[in-house]
Fold these 3 entries.
Entry 1:
Amino acid sequence: MIVVSDSDILSMFGKVGALQHLKRLFEEIYIPPAVYEELMRAKEIGFDFVDEMIEEKDNTRIKDFEAVFE
């Protein structure tokens, strides 16, 4: 299953170290550019949970929403 996520869900799962559950449930997770920007702001102020999401984005598990519609 493919899902489009907002920053609230990704942040909550990330903060409690449970991103693996989202990965297990969804084949691909798409994020809108605004969500990506919010996550980058969270990283800038010191939230480490964003690092795992960035790594997944680089591995194409979490995808940029705009790319889907190009």
Note: The mean pLDDT is 77.
Entry 2:
Amino acid sequence: MQIRNSNVKKQRFSEHVKKYHEKDYRLIRDVATRWSSTLLMIERVLKLKDVCMKKHMAEISSLLHRLLLT
């Protein structure tokens, strides 16, 4: 999932997260100069794993649907 490259994708992901969590959680990037960033990134992905999986499966389903219609 490439979310950070597009403002539209960030907004869509944010809307998807809000369906499952009260707070608008964003993904965290690993930063080499911050020792705790890897831990924070892993903790956030674990918190959002269900949201990420549902979003990813929806994208795959949409892609398959478009391919089958063409």
Note: The first helix runs from residue 7 to 20.
Entry 3:
Amino acid sequence: MAQFHDGGANRGCCCWLATASGLNVRITLTLADYPRATVLIACLKCGREGLLSKARLIAEHGPDVSLPELRHILAACPRRGQMHDPCEAVFPDLVLHGRAK
């Protein structure tokens, strides 16, 4: 039986699927996978947050945009790519104590 688990630092955007054969497969969620009609994004570091229409985001970015990429687009954070001071934008609806819901 397959089991899902989050690697801990994925911020709800992807998870690992452990298959019965022992293979671990990384699954990246897309905007189409987002479970609500509105998308909540928040930065744990600076406190910024926003609530956006999923339908509008699909119209602008398409249903197949990955949530990690969408997170970077929406955050528009100058910290993107800075390993010493990274952006900490997350999708709070998908993350609970560092684990995907």
Note: Residues 39 and 52 are 5 Å apart (CA to CA).
